[in-house]
Amino acid sequence: xSLQIRLLDWLLDWLHFRDVSFAYPSGENKKNALSGINxxxxxxxxxxxxxxNGSGKSTLTRILSRLYDPSSGEFLVEGRPSTEYxxxxxxxxxxxxxxxSQIFPLTLAENIGLGYPERFSDLEMIKEAAAEGGxxxxxxxxxxxxxxxxxxxxxxxxxxxxGDREHPLWVMSDKMTKKSxxxxxxxxxxxxxxxxxxxxxxxxLYLIAVLGHS
Length: 214
Fold this sequence. Notes:
- By secondary structure, the protein is of the alpha+beta class.
- It has helices at 57-64, 87-92, 108-113, 123-132, 136-140, 168-175, 184-200, and strands spanning 2-7, 15-22, 34-41, 46-50, 72-77, 80-81, 94-97, 206-211.
- It has a four-stranded mixed sheet with strand order 4-1-8-7, sandwiched between helices.
- A hairpin with a 2-residue loop joins β5 (72-77) and β6.
- The termini are close together.
- 20% of the residues are buried.
């Protein structure tokens, strides 16, 4: 598994790890997940961190995302300790992409709009983000386009019907309005649209992508 970190070119300074160590407070043993990490990431730079399971990549991600603060040492953003920033503002300015990123049982437009709640209903900007994120073609090919309601990962199932498709409850289930589903690759494009929107609005400081084995 690898971790990619991308800083935007317009940042004036870097991200710094200064002798950062971290131990999870709820861990059964107090062994550090990270010990004495020193790292500089320049503006516009792409950094790839590769390591075996348990080597601290996920912990590094959580500190970069301000889900945790270092147990010791400093994490600096543009020369200032990360703890001096408002957590909500820093979260808004950071995007974390993982292979299991979730989408919600909402319309495609609403899923993209959730990336920036203040512009949640701005359909024109949502369409621009979809175009930049590579999702516009498949979205516009759907019958309801951006208003397509997505299916959740939960599936309905039948109990005690013994496979009797003529049973009134089964017949009623088949008649219910069905939500649409999209492929895994299309889901990733929808998630990428959220990132493109934040890039477009110029409010994203850095992007963290957690990738599986290549």
